[in-house]
Design brief:
The complex is a heterodimer. By secondary structure, chain A is α+β, with helices and mostly antiparallel strands. Chain A has helices at about 10-25, 30-40, 60-65, 80-85, 215-220, 235-240, 255-265, 405-410; strands at about 90, 100-105, 110-125, 130-135, 145-150, 150-160, 170, 195-200, 205-210, 225-230, 275-285, 295-300, 325-330, 335-340, 345-350, 355-360, 370-375, 375-380, 385-390, 395-400, 415-419. A 6-stranded mixed β-sheet of chain A has the order 12-11-14-19-16-17, with no helix packed on it. In chain A, strands 1-5-10-9-7 form a 5-stranded mixed β-sheet. Chain B has 15 helices and 9 strands. The chains are: A alpha+beta, B alpha+beta.
Chain lengths: ~425, ~425
Amino acid sequence: MPSIDYDSAADVTERLEQRLVESLTGETSVSRRTVLGGLGVAGSAAVGLGSTRTSASSDHQDEDEHGSFGAVGEYRDLDFDPHEFLTAFNTGDSGQDNVPQQIYEEDGRTVREFEFTAVDTTITIAPGVEFQAWAYNGQVPGPTIRAIEGDLIRVKFTNFGRHAHTIHPHLKNLNPRMDGIPQNGPGVLNTGESFTYEWIAQPAGTHFYHCHSLPLKEHIHRGLYGTIIVDPDPERVRENPRDYINYPGPITDDFRTQLVEEARSRNHEYAENDAVNEMVMVMNSFDTNFDGGNEVYAANTRAFGYGVGDTDGNGNWTAGETKRPIQIDKNELQRVYLSNATEFDLINSFHTHSQFFDYYDHGTTLTPTFKTVDTIMQCQAQRGILEIDYSDHEPGLYMFHAHQSEFAELGWMSFFEVV
Amino acid sequence: MADKRQNSTTDGGVPAKNEITQPLGLPRWVSALLPIVLLALVLGVFAFTSPLAGVQSGEPLPDVTVTHTTLPSDETVVLHVTNNGPESVTISQVLVDEAYWNFQVEGAGGDQTLAPMESAQIEIPYHWNPGWDLEVALVLSDGSTFHNTIVAPSQSPGFSLSLLGTLAVIGLFVGVIPVALGMLWFPYIKTMSDRWLHAVLLFAAGVLGFLAFDAGFEAFELAERVPGAYEGNLLVVFGIFGALLLVQAISAWREGRVAAGDSRASSGLWIAYLVAVGIGLHNLAEGLAIGSSFALGRVSLGAFLVIGFMLHNVTEGPAVVAPVARGKRPSLKHFAALGVIAGAPVILGGWIGSLAYSPTIGAFFLAIGVGAILQVDWEITRMVRDAGGRVASATNLLAFLLGLSVMYVTDLFVAL
């Protein structure tokens, strides 16, 4: 049972937060300099404060001696919360405020309609480090779209950016006009132009969308990408089980039932889905100095956004902590819809500590493509579903990160806090 | 007009003092101040109305320099940074070998923002390995990065009396003792004929000329590391000319005194002192180099290096005493003073270099040394000419060349 006894660091934290809160609520007696200086943290008592702690127990003196990796300071830009993004699914029925959406029937098909924009904005990618981004609906990663296989996804897209953009979905798209590339349909959309994309949600799985304007590297790595989740339809699975497995043997009734069960747990409209904690993670990275290499890596944009802040390992964080672990209930199955948007590097990866998981590449199968692994890799635009079970683990902090050490130390370093 | 001409005096002249009266009858100081006042007004108007606001295109780029780094312990790295740019910069994160790392900014008013020309120290708790290069990068709020590689890190000595003692001993051996030994040639130099004495003087000039180039190149090399806002190369140029002109002005003042019949000012002792000051300034820079290589943990003070320095500096002794080889021998007090002025600055320079090292100070001191030395060379040639010698005689030219050669050869033994 890790426990933290922070004493002096806690005092400092409290004082600083007090100052910060006062400064943000228009208390004029506190200058910006004081607050920033405070956040810069003085005194070795506070080493590790505002950094990603590598430990959550007080018997680690190493840090005070050798320092620790991690970003210094807190995120002050609250426009985007990576913790909210994890579970923000836009289904047409419900979703984020910044994504106008509706759901209706048309010709016997469910239509999920979304309004997307592309805008130029500034995002925060590490505490105090800003990045000039191009963003769908002002956020990076873009909003997560969620549909059920066979639905029609209708996206009314307007480009407010300085450059021409498109939306290109990684779906099985039968109409080339809807592919979102410069050579087809409306081509690229210049500033102020609109187009309505229509895609059939198929195949079931977790998919990727991004801008396909040129230069491609720039348009992707500036932030124009996101996730489309297509839930399997359990009835269709019952009738065509072979479409969802990579297995040539006989299909018994038990096996068929098992596949349907898996499909029901994946489908957000079924009760079985409520027993699973689902999270969306987009592995991304940012080149801040134009040298064709990334300075910041993250899961969901913010370096160390899911790192250890001040926590007692029991889900109790110090107030105002912007870098904190993802708190999970050990009794729920954890399902991660993971995709890789990283530019400039060949692959990215996902590694869990003290834990093995099942991996479904592209999420298009109902049986794992990798069973019992603790590290998977993805090239850009590759994606998959991870099912992770912590039910027999003791509560506490469990690390997960890219197992390219460089990426981990540049921000793609995270924790689950199992309670 | 016609009336006026009729009324003018027969000599046709207007009284001269009327020609230089001020316009409108204002006193002189007004016409001196008027342009300054108007300039202040124009600047004020410009600052408050900003007529060029619409012309602004883009922003100046941030420019941050890591002037140098110190490693006070094997678990601490300190970066000395200066903001060269015209805008404030905020150091949001620090990368050590491509990993975000803890850090604290000391100075800069306690925050992470540096105003233009402001300097700060960034303290990083990092357990580095001696001899293994370390790459650090500052990440500014706009994501731009400034990289600096600490080559073959080794611990910097902190401030301690023992370090000062060490540097004093080194200074004694490489500065004071060699110069004193070199001055022991004085009795021999006294017995020389004019021709050979002048050759010795030109030999000394050669020695000094070599030192001027040596220090000059080093100053420009160091100037590369001076933060851009301080214009390192121009600072060196300013240092060289400043020192040259200042010392020359003193010299000119001395000549004025001689003309006025001040006998003390006419002696060779004066030039001896000038030479001592020139060499002293050069040795101050030499001390800075030794001290700063200590501060940067870059020193390999083998016996060979010390021997090299001694051989190098022993030639400075005769250069100091040659000017007093004619006329009455100065008292021993003067010899002691000359030796101290020429040699002791090595110790002082060592202390400054180890305690308050910065490329800016280093380059500037070196430049001052160069300027002083150039003036001394000038002075020596005039001394030979005043004594009736021919500066460019074969003997003298060869002596000058010998001075250069000896310094070149002994310089090979000295590589910090």
